[in-house]
């Protein structure tokens, strides 16, 4: 009887939704961090970095609990590898947000006015990708109850369909920003340029992982 009980343990999809929400809380810290950088408020950057670190740790706790509560013999309506892949992409998004905060924390870098607007454009576009993913992710629990089919599945697939285009827009903005950064050679220090590029790469990586997470979610639905 215990074996049967273990096979039908509580669904992991509710906690997966909570994990996605916690990851998004990490991402929501990026714009305040950028604003603090503009105003050269390095004390606030320190405080925000600590907050991101705490949120990332809380996301890790949820992720570990999901995996601990999911023995190999537990019946799932989706492929376990795709579920693990989705969680891993979400984990990377939170990690990159924390990395971004650390980059701003370890050096009192000043952001040149010439690239400020484009950095914020890139952040906003990253939020377009991650926000669409979150909207899709919170439907996982409902999808599981509907056996990953029906109107719920069609609605989520529609959301995921736009992720690729939104991530492509983020890539395009990142390339344009990178060009502008290197146009500053000779006007600002080389270390500043290196830090700008590090910031850019982390923001772009978040958008990329959001698209990857969407691909795993799509695979869960279409199989």
Strand fraction equals under 5%
What structural class should be given to the helix and strand makeup? mainly alpha
CATH architecture: Up-down Bundle
CATH class: Mainly Alpha
Q: What is the makeup of the main sheet?
A: none
Instruction: Please bin the fraction of helical residues.
Output: over 70%
Structure report:
- The chain has 223 residues and is mainly alpha-helical.
- It has a single domain, classed as Methane Monooxygenase Hydroxylase, Chain G, domain 1 (Up-down Bundle).
- 81% of the residues lie in helices and 0% in strands.
- Helix 2 packs parallel to helix 5, helix 6 runs antiparallel to helix 8 and helix 6 runs antiparallel to helix 9.
- The longest helix has 33 residues.
- It is elongated, with a radius of gyration of 19 Å.
Summary, kept brief:
With 223 residues, the protein is mainly alpha-helical.
Primary descriptors:
223 residues; mainly alpha; Methane Monooxygenase Hydroxylase, Chain G, domain 1; 81% helix
Helix-strand blueprint:
Elements: H1 2-7, H2 13-27, H3 30-38, H4 42-68, H5 80-106, H6 113-137, H7 140-145, H8 150-161, H9 163-182, H10 190-222
